Every structure is written in structure tokens, then in C-alpha cells.
Amino acid sequence: MVKRTEAASAQASADLRSHPAVRDYTLVSLAGLLVMAAVLYLDGMSWWVLIPVLVGSGALLMAWAAGPPLVLACLAGLLLERARMWGYLFWSGPSDVPSDLALAGGVLAYVAGHYRLQGLIRQARPIDRRNARRRRNVPESESWFRPAPERRPPSLVGSNEVLVLLIGVPVFALLGYVVWARLALETPSPGLGLNPPEWRAVVLVWLVFLGLAATSAVLGYLRWTQASRDECLMYLQDQLWSATRGEQRRINRWLVWARLRAQRRKEGG
Amino acid sequence: MLTARGWWCLLPVFLMVLVGVLFGLTPLAVTGLALLLWFAWEWLSFVIRVRTVLPRLRVERVVGDGRGALPTLWGGRTYEVRVALRLHGPGRLPYVVLSDPVPFAVEYLDGTTSTQGEVAREPLEVRYRIRCGGAGQVRFEGVRVEVADLQGFFYHAVFVRQPAVYRVLPDILVRPHGRPPGKKQHNQLLPPGVHRLRQPGSGSELLDLRDYLPGDPPRTIAWKVSARRGRLITKEFESEVPVRCTLFLDTSTSVRLPYPRPGGEDEPGREGQLGGEQGKPLDRLVEVSAAVLRANSSIRDLTGLCVFDESGSQTVRPDRTGRHQTKILELLADAGALAPAVGRAEPDGLLPSAYSLAQEVYPELLRAEINAMPVWLTFLIGFPRYRRRWRGLLEYLHRTRLRTFVLGLAVPSLIFLLTLLVLLLRWLPRWAEGPVLWAALILCPLAIVGTWLVFLGGILLSGRHRRVARWRKRLAALLAVRHALPPGGVGGLLEDDDQFSLHLQRFLAEHGVPYAVTLYDPAGRYLGAAPGKVEVLATALLEAVGKGHDNELFVLLVDVLELDEHLGPLLQAMRVALGRHHQVVLVCPWPPGLELPGKDRPRRPLPAGHSLHPLMSALTRERLHEAYHRIRRTCMRLGVSVVCAGSDESVPLILDRIERLRSVGGRR
Description:
Largest interface: A-B, 99 and 90 residues
Number of strands of chain A: 0
Helix content of chain A: over 70%
Strand content of chain A: under 5%
Number of helices of chain B: 18
Distance between the termini of chain B: 78 Å
Helix content of chain B: 40-55%
Shape of chain B: flat
Strand content of chain B: 15-25%
Shape of chain A: extended
Number of strands of chain B: 17
Number of helices of chain A: 9
Largest sheet of chain A: none
Structural class of chain B: alpha/beta
Distance between the termini of chain A: 68 Å
Oligomer: heterodimer
């Protein structure tokens, strides 16, 4: 029985791998890895480029969720090492726009393709640990929610989904380059005592922070405007409770104490 | 909203950008910025979709049996549930998982309760089949909608609430001949009454002979007797009338509590608590009521219903129209859906179920922005302050933590200061100054250190209590909004265990979630006895007698097995009913599986051995048999029959009994 289940599982996995949508995303990811390797190789990194390629393709093959962070770490390590060896660390070294754009596009294609592939092969949404615990304690026939599939079926992948991703890759690579070019123009005020890279990092962190804060404020406001009657009531009630919880506590304690004492006396008598 | 996968992607990307910017590595910075912008774009589009599209989702639910949608269901039958999630207006959600929770009141048979896909113009749909249980209500809450992006970076789950309540009418009407209840079976109308009444009428049975009076129809003249006596004698016939039957259905707490679990060594139950595995006495009473209704309607008798509990009653006068029957069936279904409400039940047992339900169905009302429980408050204040039962030192310390802390610091400090003052003013004898000073110097710091240790130890060991306190506050706020409590209701629910427990039970019952309640209070008193219902029943019976006609039958479906000492008003009312020549039958619910009581009561020896379960079962059996025979003896003295509604066979038995009673009543 166990062997039959394993065989069925292996068959299902093989069928999944051969689905056109899965194949498309695998090809996109592999192409991204190859572009990245080509750019790095042309930059003179020789056979070191095999490290991120092997890690990335291995993660693709094993459907390993940690693949993209590892590939990014390898890439950062390689570029840092090259800069250290060639001696242009801490200053903007020689830059080749097409190769930078190609590298960004390749990495983006790999990361996006890999994560979408994860959704098709492993899980598309986080696992609810409570459900797993409930399933252990409560028989399936008595549970309120029956288990829902965790993978996104490849049949749901639309005909233009991969195409939109491929169009987005050069667009975001270009946008990244534009932002970097604008950031490179930033120069620190003489009084601050910061060198240009440090100043750019500060500007970048502030940009991200302010962008997040502004977006959160807008979204929060939108949320309040869409709040239901019960949510508004709950908010008002919570404000009242926050302001008067000490008084409420004292009054209700006295009331409960008196009621319990009266009951005890009545039942005792 | 950001998943673990999202964090694991965002963190390296952000570090990568920082490293690229800080070290001036253009390829790294450009790649990182491209990834960061792509991530931000995905986030923004996801958030905008969630904010704008999710509020426009609607659930369309159809429960039917292949011939179309049905507003009312029948017990024991199979139905198909179709749920569609439709988007009203423009927009699109690329990846949605739809899950429909199956109500606890029905049995899931087959089909899919969850599906996934894209929501745009076409709706997402699930179909599954269910089988209804006994009479009651089935409540479909709505659907859970989970939204994620294609990469799995962002996730949002909401519950689209669209409650739909369907009445489940008693299945007793479905069983005969296996025909559905809606099908017309015959066209012949029965006569308006088939029961004999010993009053002059137009029946076929001879009642009496009397002298001929002018105006008597010639066909009623008894010619032979007239010839024999030499004067005209007229025959009088009995009346044939319908019986007006009124059912008194007990819906008090005692019949809403489920029967005890089988228990035993394999299946240990919680001490003093019951589960809902075998139904409840009310189910059987509803079944018997429906059977009597059907039997009456088949011979065109009139049936009325009085639903009562310890707080009041609701009466529907006897009638025989179709609309009237439907009304009675709906009342029976509503009665079958009632859940137990025990005033002194411990809320701690109900809290996890209620909080889980609230998390699923009302997640937006448990958000910290609108329903906050400050963390520091759980460290300092414990509630409720006063409880009925002692629950150990740790729980006591948790509830009185702030007071213990303040007193533990203030009292030693005060004593120390007083000691110093006394010493400075030289109010003590010289020989006592040294020991008092040393005692103050050692004992007061020790007491303060001890207080700190108890306080910190209490904080370390009270994780569960603090979690329960958090749940309780959030649920109290939710219940205060749901049940429209006045301002300050939250504080009341936090401090009052009884009120909180009642509201929790109401919350769970409203949503059709089964729950276990405590049967006995700390003093060992049974909480479900509801003796107040006897007075209500007696009043309702007297009212029915006052409005009754001749030949009325009152069927009391009530659990009075262990209420001997409270039966006085009911016995008085029964006497009045019998004195007006009505018939009364008392039907008592009986636990399924327990041996039915016979006419005589042979006392059986208790089982020997060390096992507790057989002993408990034997004791329960003996106790119920004893109670039944006491009630039977009391009622038989009045001339009231007592029947047990114990098993499936009991319904025809009760009908037969009622029929015999009618016959007897007709010949009096």
C-alpha cells in the first residue's frame, strides 16, 4: 500500500513537471540563470560563475525555497570579491550599462520564475499550522473546514502570465538603473561628514522608509473609510474601555462580589 | 500580509541594495534596485486589489435537491449545496482559494468544499452534498477567501460573511412509504372527525332511546321498540367529532443538554461534562411531536402546540389547516435548534471554541487597532477578581497580582519606617531597641525581596493565564458589539463569569457550534434541572383547559423525572384537566441505550468488580428507573398515563398509546 502511494506520488510529480506551465517557468528561470552567468563570465569571472548557476539550477530541480536568497548571496559575494581584487571597492567602478541591465534582468527572471514555480510545485500560500494541529485532534469528518489544496494548479496559469512577466523583466531592470543613476547624482552636504556611498545609503533608506510610511498612511485611511458599522462600534467601545477600564473594573468587581455573596447566603440558608 | 517567503526574499534583496550602494558596486545596486522595485510593485498591486476588490465579493448559495432551490430542508434527506463567489464590478484577483465551512448540524457526504482559481467575471464555485440530521436549523456562515500573489509573497484571508439559516423539519414525515412530503397522496377528504363522543349527534353508534318529539326525523324512529311500547321512540346516536390534541413541548435546559457519552475505559469523557455524540432529549421529543402531528393530520384531527421552558411559553391553538401544520413544524424545527444555556457554566471551557470561531468568522473585529489588549495590562491585572471556585494558588496570584505586589512593597516599607520612627523617639525600652532594629533590618528587606520574587515568578509562570486574559478581553468586546450590550459591557463581561459564560453559549449557539457545558456547580448541584418549567407548564395547561372543548387530548412531552418535589402545580393542573373530562398523557424522554423501565421495578444487584464505568451505568439506570416509577405511581393515581420516549420504537408505541386513550375517552 505504501509502495503504491509512493508510486502514485512520483507519477503525479512527474506529470506536474511535464505540464506546460511548469515547463515555461522552469525555462524562464534557467534562462535568467544563463543570462546572469554569461554577463558575469564576460565580466571576467571565469569559472566562478558556475557557483550561482549550480546553486540556482539545483534549487530549481529540487524545488528548494531557499534557492533565490542563496543565488543572491553568491552573486553579491562574487561581485564584492571582484571589486576587492580589482581595487574599486567604495567607489563606483567601471560600469557597462547593457551588462548591468542584462544582469538585473536575468536575476529578476530567475527569482520571479523560481518563486512562481514554488507555488505550482510546493505551496502557493502559507500553511495554516492551526489546521494541521486540528486535523490531528479532530477527525476530518467532524472538522468545520475541510483541507484545501496548498498548490496552485498549473491549469490556472493563464496564457499571457509568462509573457507579462517577461515584459516586466526589462522594465524593472531599466527602472532600477534609472533609480541608481539618480541616486548616484546625490552628493552629501559638506557639513555632514559622510562620503558619497554612505550618503546614498542614507537617502535610499529614507526613501524606502518615507515611501512605506506614506503608502501605509494612505492605505490605513482607505481602510478606515471602508470600515463596517461593527468595526466603528468596536473602535468606539475600545476607546471607552481604554479610558474607563479602571472604573469599570472596580464597579463590576463590587457588583460581582455582592451578587456572589448574596447567592452564597441564600443557598447556605 | 507578508509571508515567510516574502520576508526571505525581501531581506536579501534589501541587503543586496545596501551593499551595492555602500560599496559602490553598480551591477549589484542596479540588480538589487530592480528586484526591490519589482517587489514593491507586486506589494502595491496586491494591496490595492485586496482593498478594492475584496469588499465587492458576494456569496451566492443554493441548497437544493435536484429540483431547484429550497427554503426549508427535511431531516434525514440529502441535499446539494452550491456556493458561488462572484465579483460585483470591475477588477480581478489572480489567485483565490475559496473554502466553505460545512455546518456542524449536517453530515458531509461528498463533493468539494474548497476550490481555487481566478476571480474576475466568472465566479468561483464549489458543490458538495450533505445529509441533514434531526429537526433543527442549519446555519451556513459564509465562505473563507484566501488571496495570495503568484509568487506567494503576500497573503490575506478574509471571511465573507453571508449567513444563511435553513430550517430542518422533522424527518418523521418523510419515512412512511418513502415518499417526499410534498407529493399529494390521495384526493379523498376524510370526514371531519372519526372519534366517538357520547353526546347526541349524527354518528352511527347508538347512544340512547327517548320519546319521539315533534321535529325528529322519521328515519331515527325505532319502529320495533315503538311497536312494543305503543308510543313513538326515537334513537339517539353518538357524535363523531375530531379530537383536539395539544402538545406541550419542553424546551428547557434539562432537555437541551446532550445525553452522556458512552464513556468507558476506551473513551474517557471529561468529568462532569457532556458531549453531543448521541443527540439530546429534545430531539426525541421533537420527533415524537412530529409523529403525533402526522398521525393526527392523517385522520384530520386538530393539533396544537405549546412550547415552553423555565422562562415562558408560546402556544398555538389546535387547528388542521396546512398553514397551521407548517407553522407547527417550523416551531418544532426552531425548538430542535435550541442549545443548552447553563447560567453557572465555567467560561474557561467555552473560551477556546468561541475564540477559534471568532478568529475564523470575525477576524476584522479582533484586529489590534480596534480591539486592543495592552500587553502590560496582562502582566499587572488579572480578571475576573471573584470566582465561584478556587483554582489553585497560581491562578489566585495571577488575579491578585497587583494588589499582592503593592501590599508586599508598601507594608514592609511602612513597618520599617515606623520602626525607625519608634527608635528615634525612644519609645521602646533600651533592651528591646537592638532586637527590634535587627528584626526590621532583616525582615523588611526579606519581605520586599520575597514580594518581587513572587511577582516575577507569577509573571514567568502565568503565560497561559495571560493568553486566556487576552482572549477574554477580545471576545468580551466582540460579544458586547454583537449582543448590543450597553457602554461598560466589556468591563462587566471581564469580571462576571456567569454573564460571560451565558454570552459565550449564546454566541456559539447562534453559530451552530456544539459545545460542552458543566453539569454540576462546585457545590455539586445539577445545573440543568430547571424546576421553574413545572410552574410554567402548569399555567399553560390550565390556560389550555380553560379554552378547551370536549374530548381534548393533552400530550405533555416533558422531562420531570427528577423533579418530584416540584410537581405540585403540575399535578393540580392535571387534576383540573381530568376533571373537565380531558385526557392527559405524559411522555418522558429516556436516554437511548438505557434499559426501558417495565411495569414493575425489579431491583438488580450492582455489578461487582473494580471498574468504575459499569458501576456508574448501573447507578444511573437504577436512579432513572426509581424516578420513573415514582412519577408513574404519582400519575397513575390521577389516571394519567406515562410513556417513555427512549428509542426509535417508542414513537409507534406512543402513537398506539394515544390512539387507545382516544378510544377509551370516546366510550366514557
